[in-house]
Specification:
It is built from 20 helices and eleven strands. Among the domains are: about 150 residues, HUPs (Rossmann fold), CATH 3.40.50; about 55 residues; about 90 residues, Orthogonal Bundle (Arc Repressor Mutant, subunit A), CATH 1.10.10. Helices cover about 45% and strands about 10% of the residues. Bound molecules: glutamic acid.
Amino acid sequence: MTKAHIRVRFAPSPTGMMHLGNVRTALMNYLFAKQKNGTFIIRIEDTDFERNFDPQAKHILADLAWLDLTYQEGPLKGGYHEPYFQSQRTKLYQDELAEFVRKNLIYRCFCTTEELEKKRQRQLALKQPPRYDRTCLKLTPETIESYVAENRPFIWRFKLNQEEPVTVHDLAHGSIKFDLKSFSDIPLTRQDGTFTFMFANFIDDMQMEITHVIRGEDHLSNTAGQVAMYQACGITPPTFWHLPILCNAEGKKLSKRDFGFSLGDLRTAGFLPEAIDNYLAIIGGSFEQEIMSLEEIAQKFNFEHLSPTSQIKYDIEKLKWLNHKWIARVNIERLTQLCLPYLTSFYPEAKNIPIATLHKLIDMIRTDLVTLHDIAPSLEFYFKTPVLTKILFADIAPEHVAKIQKMVEHQLHNLPKPDDFMHQLKTDAHQQAVPTKALFMALRIALIGKAQGPSIHDIIEMLGTDEAKKRLQIFVNL
Ligand code: GLU
């Protein structure tokens, strides 16, 4: 038997920025399709015109491209199920709705928002589940006809079979049974004739032949209602995977207030897309090897043993660690390209540095970087002569500092050959009982203003003999 071709989709609403919850959903869909040679589809759910803050989903598509989450069908690419914007699919929904009418699966509800709210309050006061009381299901055909004749606003509701529980098949949770007794008949349209999320999302998944719906756990009760609709249409529902909600360190749902919630913030803060993808893929699972490319993750990810947890803790420290590892891992051309905007915003003159020099400079300090932002402080020494004061050498015994100053003075003529210079200094230090550690510390402070940093040899090479000499002379005269 041949297995059905897998089709998954990421279906964002362009209501604002991408946050890490969305990104993880997109990523899981991407990985699932990639591992299983399936098709990854992007569909933009832009039916809520008032909250449509990203026309044509330009930002979303740019974010996906930045994250390297490529798709096979969707906006800009097209595909068999075009269009991939819900705002352009109205005719399809109208046709499907007519089919629902024909099959007698839905009914008109003329209740006003105020009436519905009153009913809801009454039910809540009586400690009953607040569900629609089906007033309009009981209307006679004549009443309906007269209401329609007088143009009373209405919505279409899907008639749930409340007696029959539905079962959702979920990759992580197994079979989840829902009793529909407390569910309201599902609104499929709004009073202005537009279609609701519940309907448009269901129709699209059905028409686009989606085999697996991977989305956040917050959609679980929507899934129950949609599965009921699949059943009413006599269609096998897709398999679902409800992803755990991302939480902050206190266990609360991640929100705008948490740093690193918005993808844009992370990007500005100097995180690499590789690190973000990597991090969001491995949290919630356990992997022998943690640093992985999308390709490697797609191979290793075990979709057969998914954790049924409903929360995942978002740990910015771990993300920083991964970012640090990725900065060390990417090739120098790419790293330089990534770093340059951060560097030039502090030191515009960096634009004029020859590319080969930039590569060397960045390569020298790349293992010190946690985010791309750290590039400016790490390379500060190159752009600014440190201001030396005695206090900077406080961790070295004063008699050692004095000896080192003398030694350096005598060896300055060797600077054009940094190896010789260092060799001589080490010999001198040994003879005069100055610990090598003290020598290195003093030289580094003299050259870059701090005790930690790249090797002395590299620093001299990058600064050039003249500049290094100038700085060491200041030290000698201190
Ligand atoms: N537009 C919905 C959302 O952004 C899509 C949910 C789904 O994936 O079905 O939450």
